[in-house]
Amino acid sequence: MPILSIFMKVADLAFTALNHDMRLTKATVRNCQDLLALSASTVMAGSGDLTVFRRLRKLHGRTEPDIPYGSHLAAHLAIGVLFLSGGSYTFGTSNIAVASLFCAFYPLFPNNVLDNKSHLQAFRHFWVLAAEARCLVPRDVETHRPSSIPISITMKSGQTLTRTAPCLLPELNLIKTVSTASPQHWTIVLDFANNPDHVSAFEKSQTIYVHKRSAYASTSTVFQATLQALEEASEATNSTTSMTSTTANATLEWLMGLGCFSSLDRSERALLLPPDAGAITQIGLESTVVDVKLILEKAMQVGWSKDRLRNVRLVFAFVERLGEGRGLWLDGETVDRLRAAVWTAFN
Q1: Apex CA 175: angle with CA 171 and CA 180, to 5°?
Q2: pLDDT at residue 271 above 70?
Q3: Of 88, 81, 45, 46, which is closest to residue 202 (Cα–Cα)?
Q4: Alpha helices in the chain (DSSP H)
Q5: Sheet holding 167-168, edge to edge
Q6: At what angle do helices 69-82 and 20-43 cross, to 10 degrees?
Q7: Which has the least CB within 10 A, 4, 99, 253, 265?
Q8: 248 or 147, greater pLDDT
């Protein structure tokens, strides 16, 4: 990256080419700049890296009359590679992929649209043969919305990588397992080394479905959460034999259909009522995390003063600093939605 910056500074020097040597030097520096831009984008293909994009954005905005068509072509190719398919694709390293990229990014750029003397411009589209879909997208099994959760990638070499999905995975033939590592969701493991079905399923959709644990069991152990789930299933089976329970279920469904509860998922709705009847006397009027969440969302709709909204922004900063993995009751999706409401209120 520093080398690309150096060539960009040299190419920006305002001087008039008075002889053949100066014209040759200027064209060579520009070709090196374009080639380095394509090289940096190829290494970071599909990642949308901000550092690389800042330099490519400067190359895209050039309007000088002496900039040839080929230089603009290289800059636009580099931007497209950096955001390959919206960040869901990247380049492979197979023999056919390397050969295709060499044909597509051949470092002899045309002088105009019809210039095919040194290299056929149709070959510039060969990068398609090197593109691979390797973006892992976790989706909630109930809402089908993408979820941002941490994952752990174990390579066949024994190295362990920690990423936050959605993200691009390394080459599949180098991965041993991919597992979710979110305390708010049940753990899912993709065994690429021993299960060919996992590899073929990932190549088709690149999507895994995750299930949220109950809000009151999200920070507990897997054993405790499993017992809680079995207890809830048993209670649901027993309640179908009672007319009173049927009426209560219908009332609860009507209650959950109200607009103020529309943003709650199943795990959060479980906190609206205590897990057993005796818990009412135990908790008394004590609030739950869902109560606080509903209060914050209501405040965004009614409108608080700017001083109180500034205090809410401090809460967001605190949550962002600690992260979701430390037992916080505000998940990332809730914080993003409330932060957007605060931003709208201030503007």
Answers
A1: 110
A2: no
A3: 88
A4: 2-11, 20-43, 50-60, 69-82, 95-104, 196-205, 222-239, 243-256, 266-269, 279-283, 289-302, 306-322, 332-346
A5: 167-168, 135-140, 207-210
A6: 10
A7: 253
A8: 147
Q: Indicate whether 303 pLDDT > 60.
A: no
Q: Which amino acid is at 249?
A: N
As given in the structure block, the two tokens for residue 267 are 């795990």
Contact 124, 196 (CB under 8 A): no
Segment 102-145, tens digit of pLDDT: 999 998 999 888 899 889 999 999 999 999 999 999 998 888 88
pLDDT tens column, 200-214 = 999 888 999 998 876
Can you give the pLDDT at residue 314?
A: 66
DSSP string for 233-247: HHHHHHHTT-HHHHH
How far is Cα 9 from Cα 29, in angstroms, rounded to an integer? 10
Partners of 133 in the beta sheet?
A: 89
Which of these three, 83, 105, 131, is where a domain ends? 131
Residues 191 and 293 in one domain: no
232 Cβ contact partners less than 8 Å away, ≥ 6 residues apart: 214, 270, 275
142 in a structural domain: yes
Q: How many residues does the chain have?
A: 347
Query: 17 and 120 share a domain?
Result: yes
Mean of pLDDT over the chain:
77
Write down the residue that tokens 């529309």 correspond to.
262
Number of compact structural domains in the chain: 3
Phi and psi for 284 in degrees, rounded to 5? 60, -130
